[in-house]
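Hi support team,

I'm opening this ticket because the web form for multi-chain structure prediction keeps timing out on my end. I have pasted the exact lines I submitted so you can reproduce it. The total is 665 residues across two entries, so I didn't expect it to be a heavy job. Is there a limit I'm missing, or should I split the entries? Thanks in advance, R.K.
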Amino acid sequence: MKLPKRDTGALEYVLTERVVLLVALLAVVLVWFKVLEGGQYLVAPFDAGYLASALESMVPLCLLALAELLVIVSGRGGIDLSVGSVVSLAGMAFGFMVGLWGWPLLPAAVGAVLVGGVLGAVNGFLTAYLRFPPLIATLATYYAYSSIAMVSNDKAPISTKPVQDLSALTDGVKLPLLPAIPLQVFTFLMPCLVIVWLVLTRSTYGRKLYAVGTNDVAATFATLSVPRVRLSAYVGSGLLAGVAAVVTVAQFASARPDAGTVGNGMALPAITIAVLGGVAIQGGIGTVGGVFVAALLVTWLNAGLLLAFEDSKGSQYQLLALGVVLILSALLNTLTLRRYGRIT
Amino acid sequence: MRRPAARAIEGQELALVGVLAVLWLVLGLTTDTFFTAGNLGAILFNVAPIALIGIGMTAVIVTAGIDVSVGSAVAVVMVIVAKLIHDGGTPMPVAVLVALGVGALLGLVNGGLVAYGRIHPIIVTFATLNIFRFVALQIFDGRQVTGIPDTLGFFGGGGEGRLLGVPNAWLLAVVLAAIMWFYMRAWPTGRHLYAIGGDAQAARLAGVRVRRRQLFAYVLTGALVGLAGCVFIGTGGLVIQNAGEGLELQVIAAVVIGGTSIVGGRGTVLGTMLGALLVGTVTSAVTLLGWPSELTTLFVGVFILVAVGVDLLRARRRGTL
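Hello R.K., no limit was hit. The queue was backed up. Here is the completed structure from your submission:
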């Protein structure tokens, strides 16, 4: 590896401190849409209330981006294409528990998250112990899980009364001086962000995960159990997808068997946000902060685009934006790594 | 160790032929309709687009790349060709050339970003999957294109699109696969694809033009996506907005089931054709047996795991892992 150069202070700072760059981009996006609003180009006001309500769509995406962070950091081509299917299948399990078997909310939610963890463990076992390439293992389980989710209730969504009542979980919270922020941000997203951050930065396990992702041969010589660490990354991914499943069911007020796979699925935006957040696809590099700000950026960019175009045009431009952002951020990651050897 | 006569066919391909034979035997015995000319023709026709794109995808994956954008690329080709025929009354040969050109151009975007932009292929094609879908939706400019005259009958599955009962689209796939098989096995630049997938750095030092070969693999896949688009249009006079969604997964499944290693350096087009046949047979079987069609994806997933698992076991025995 090249030694880091120390010549261009400001540029190096902005490029390697990914959060700083993303916050700057976020400011650009917000100012840009404010200007468009001032010029009467938007179909609705781009105000604080709208931005706050847009956070609802950020919750599942950010959770799945955190899931991708864990598996991509674990290295050896780590990636999880199956997160969307896990959302579908764990969501159906949640629907069965709450809607048909009459379980109380809390045990059912814990059960759904555990289902996600088991599905993630299957991925982890295949990749870490049987040494399947992650792309293939999670492609296969993407197929399998989505199929099981579809046939589990004969293609029908579960939307009985108890499931419909879950929409109470998505109410807004009124805080002083702030617009109503969706409750899920505090009940689901924040705890997960804090837990993943603590695990990655304040625990020995986090050190092990980065070590394994950076160089698994060196990690083996350092007496780390590489397969066990990798397996746990996929279990973590599954658990987070399980949380996203609970959130998604509450948002739809219905457990849909295609919740995470309809259209191009949820894995795609999740991977995009992770890469934009500075997670390097070769492993060992990536932070919770970067992923969080990237999720915020993508969410508000999408929200703005919806207002900037009439009818379905806005969602079409979201596709373009997501693709362009993904390529540019990957190029940026490559350049930064080649020049400075790190992204934080 | 291996006998020269057996060299033309790899172990995984032999195993696939065996699995296919057993499946066909069981299906022939348990259903009355499997071995009818109509059903076999339908399987071959349904498999043709997957096989066509799979030929290019094999080359891409052999170079240790991947292309998940083919589903959206097919949508772009289809909507352009459909509009040309519908609005402009373009004759078939021109429409097919346009399809090839548009497909190759989209492949050029992918290949350029992978080979010269040096971005990871999964990231590039994940991004272009979105961008191509955007382009397709922009051209659609409505919900769908209907009432396309039957000018692509040669590529269709009906009477005009068959030769002695075999769909032309399938014959085309077989011929192209044979050419590709020869190219990758015997032609120097074709062998280079394997060298790049094995170790791109070593290949470059050995004088292989790595970037050019990578670019070629993606452009070829794009051109074949163009052909596959013609086959899809040939089935009916309707092109809808979500055309091609999920196609990339079917193609990758066919390639992987056919024994191509996802980490590059190993695999054959023959295996891909057999893999595509297996996917088509399973789809047909699930329908004939009256099972829910969603079970198809479960079987495909299990087949991928088994195929790759067997391959991993053999690699371990050879000591290359």
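A quick check on our side: The longest helix of chain B spans residues 37-62. Let us know if the file doesn't open in your viewer.
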